[in-house]
Amino acid sequence: MKQYKKAKQKKLLIICSKQQNTSNKQMKNTTKKIIWLSLGILVILNIFVWRVVFLRSGDELKLSFLNVGQGDAIFIEAPNGNQMLIDGGPNKKVLSELGSVMSFWDRSIDVVLATHPDKDHTGGLPEVLKRYDVDFIFESDIVSDTAVYKEFQKRVEEEDARIILARSGQIIWLDSDVYVQILFPDRSTLGWEANTASIVTRLVYGDTEFMLTGDSPKSIENYLAQNYAEALRSDVLKLGHHGSKTSTLELFLGYVSPILAIISAGENNRYGHPHKEVLSVLEKFGIETKSTKNGTVTVISDGVDIRIKN
Hints:
Blueprint: H1 2-56, E1 61-65, E2 74-77, E3 83-86, H2 93-101, E4 108-114, H3 119-122, H4 125-131, E5 133-139, H5 147-158, E6 162-165, E7 171-175, E8 178-184, E9 200-205, E10 208-212, H6 218-228, E11 236-238, H7 250-256, E12 260-263, H8 276-284, E13 288-291, E14 297-301, E15 306-309
Helix pairs in contact: 4-5
């Protein structure tokens, strides 16, 4: 009986040993799979991180005219990664558009500028301020009693950002050789009509320039032409007021002399933007035109030449 028990115990030990070996093999196989999976994930993450670093360490300025429908929203990213958003469109669609041009983990924008209080320019900015940390907010001193503007101002007050009243002569440096000039207004705009009070900016990178006019009407374009003349020269012009005939004065267009005009307008909008009168003027000057109706338009500059990202 003792021998039997010993034999039985030995047999059981062998069985246990076999089971342990099988278990060990399974554990080893599982461990190998985990190791290889981990290595694979690390390699992918490494490639992804270095791709981002490579892209960020380039020398390109990216300017995206976002497809926010009937409105304006312009996202700027300098070669060093500093970012600026000019206007935010009419609603929270700006968030999905920003998501298409920003890294998914990025939750900060260095500068936000609101050209004027109209909904089609500031309606989406409260959502932007909710989601992103913003360091500087530029705005004019024109006020509005609309619910949209009040919500924007509420968010501005809650944001831990420096609020700056925009005035001509100010320079916003985004990189060592990338800066935004504020051309207008040059005085208080309290009590002005909203479009007339639009902040006009000119983005410069090396030998390339971008004229960004908000909804400025012809009267302001004429004023700029009289005061700046050839200094308005820019490769790209974001047409005033979504291509409305109330903007794009020929004198102003002649001084800016762009090779590319951007129309930020919604598909089948009720205003008929862009107006045929404006399209005729652009054709007369031989200026190529791109519209956000067909999706976000991204223009890339290396400081010498510009190209459109398809």
